[in-house]
């Protein structure tokens, strides 16, 4: 054993002893269950502030039941708890034996009992015993499974996650009937006590990444986690970056595809979106439908999305830079109609472009916030009326109307909502740079974006993989999607323990 290994083992041992002492101190600080029935009832009333929906039921044989009316299923309470305890002796072992609820636990501390009750359990106290039996009889209220709203597609499964984490995990396990699917549970939020689950495939996921994600979730210190979109901002590598570094999806098939590639999936109770990591920049422009169509069509669609992103970000800034500083790049046949279109416009190109872009964003945001039927009508009618009135009033030119419309249309081709919002925002600073410094400013903005992307990472993996650093094996399923028989390796970005999906030579045999 080397000296460095000896020092490492020494510090690990010391850290383990410190953690053990801290855990023992936390246990000592917890309050034990009162043995006396009246003391127990008084303690629970104090801890739960004698809430109006707190129900206390004392049975003739000595059992005392405490639960929340609004959180418990009345049928389960009557049939599986009350009816079973009527003839039982008042002891924790007898209660544990007679209650016919699958999720039943024993507790010694008041905090644990309160936490179980807040999740829908009934607490059963036996006089003279410092142990509480909790039986989970919570209501299972959730909406039925529906089609995906934000990731709709023609081919493939037509089912989406809902707000119940138990339902979402069951959907994943039905797709992946594999005992290697691991599920780790956490509680996050001092006030909400929200349930968070970390899923990964044992033998595929990199243990270092699992440890990193586990530590990030454990170290969260916040009052509430109400949705996965809040959690993802707390666990991603750089929360100050404008680009999202982790993907979210509402499709179970996509979450299963991530797990099979060695990635991690995080679920939040009450959220319809699940988080996946690590992910690269190019994956934000991929769709699950790309796997369901022919490889030529999938490659064309992916290339179209990348082209649309470039058009959406740079089309309007190029127009502003050309009219402000670089007339020489405009074809002569286009100069005359362009001059006639702008002859009545009193504003310089930068003000004209920013004004019209702001109007488009106002229409888009208003259409998204209004009810569905009203929002669609308002978006179409408002766009036509405002665009026509702006041209007639001389506020803008016809050509810019076309450019802005194409840029807005191109931004909708991005399959991911978060990345689509980023593309919408990036146009504004680039328009300003193009208006002040022309193509030089545009190049400065492009270089800044490229450097910013190069500096980002997703769960410690390069964000621009597989292009930087170059991993040529992963190019087969990036912008280009080669035939499925050729994509037999898992992406190196997730550092999977098993890199081969299958034997490519055998898969080609008919």
TrEMBL record:
InterPro entries xrefs: Spore_Ger, UPF0353/GerABKA_families
Bias (Basic and acidic residues) ranges: 495-510
Keywords carried by this UniProt record: Membrane, Transmembrane, Transmembrane helix
UniProt region (Disordered), positions on chain: 490-510
Top-rank taxon, per record: Bacteria
Membrane topology: Multi-pass membrane protein
Transmembrane segments: 304-325, 384-410, 430-454
Any single Pfam family the record assigns to this protein: GerA
Protein known as: Spore germination protein
UniProt source species: Mesobacillus boroniphilus
Phylogenetic placement of the source organism: Bacteria, Bacillati, Bacillota, Bacilli, Bacillales
